[in-house]
Specification:
259 residues; alpha+beta; Arc Repressor Mutant, subunit A; Beta-Lactamase; 2 domains; 6-stranded antiparallel β-sheet; two-stranded antiparallel ribbon
């Protein structure tokens, strides 16, 4: 039986692609020699030779005990860290953000969590000639921004409440929704995989945001599309949601995330 890798492999690369298929099979949960062989479509003897070579090179580790079996090896951990170091998030995401900014004509932000704040690590101005106070390196309270709320979606509600209180204290003297209203809104956002800023952070500015996830499914960043109210009525916010979520998912996929 031929695997997809075998069919697509250039001449002389079949063994390489089969070895990669073994690694992928183990990563997907195949553990025994029989399970790995079934996953890659190879005979027992061929599968054993591939596994032995990968164990020797530390790409796989043989498990001891009567059950035997295999798991991913230390070499892959090392390579994973090196790959991550060579692809900083802002550089990896930038091309996606450029395309989103061009498609929407609005300002696009990329941010990460820094304690109780969102730290903006990239900003692409829109083409409408608008200026907003956000900038690369700026920190803003998570609970007050669309991009910050996107970073909060997987947090427990007790942490939502603490971050809401932090934002409320910083907004002393100005209106901020009650904790109950904030909680209910974040529940809706978490169910939909997005968040909105309806002038809560900056008067006259609205945005729609979505979380970016890593290979483990953890939210590691978020992006947003923002504009002034005349260009961003609530109907357009909702129309932009699929495009913003799709962009965030494309970046997540580059980080190894799979739905």
């Amino acid at each position: 039986m031929q695997t997809d890798h075998d069919k697509q492999a250039p001449a002389g690369a079949q063994a390489l692609f089969r070895g990669l298929a073994v690694i992928d099979a183990v990563a997907q949960g195949a553990c025994s020699l029989a399970d790995i062989g079934a996953a890659i479509g190879c005979t027992r003897s061929t599968t054993h030779r591939l596994i032995a070579a990968l164990v020797q090179a530390d790409y796989l580790r043989a498990l001891g005990g009567s059950s035997g079996g295999y798991q991913l090896g230390p070499r892959l951990i090392e390579l994973g860290y090196k790959a991550r170091a060579q692809m900083p998030l802002s550089r990896l995401a930038h091309g996606h953000l450029v395309r989103l900014a061009q498609a929407t004509q609005d300002t696009v932000h990329l941010g990460v969590r820094d304690g109780r704040d969102v730290l903006y690590i990239d900003k692409l101005p829109g083409s409408r000639g608008l200026e907003m106070r956000s900038r690369i390196g700026l920190r803003m309270p998570l609970a007050l921004t669309g991009i910050g709320k996107a970073l909060m979606l997987d947090l427990p509600e007790s942490e939502w409440q603490a971050l809401h209180e932090h934002g409320r204290q910083l907004r002393a003297g100005s209106a901020m929704m009650s904790w109950e209203a904030f909680r209910d809104r974040l529940r809706d956002y978490a169910n939909g995989g997005f968040s909105l800023d309806l002038e809560e952070n900056e008067l006259g500015i609205r945005c729609v945001a979505a979380p970016i996830r890593d290979a483990g499914g953890q939210i590691v960043a978020a992006l947003s599309v923002a504009s002034a109210v005349p260009y961003m009525p609530e109907a357009r916010l909702h129309d932009l949601r699929p495009e913003v979520i799709a962009c965030a998912q494309s970046i997540s996929a580059e980080l190894g995330w799979r739905p």
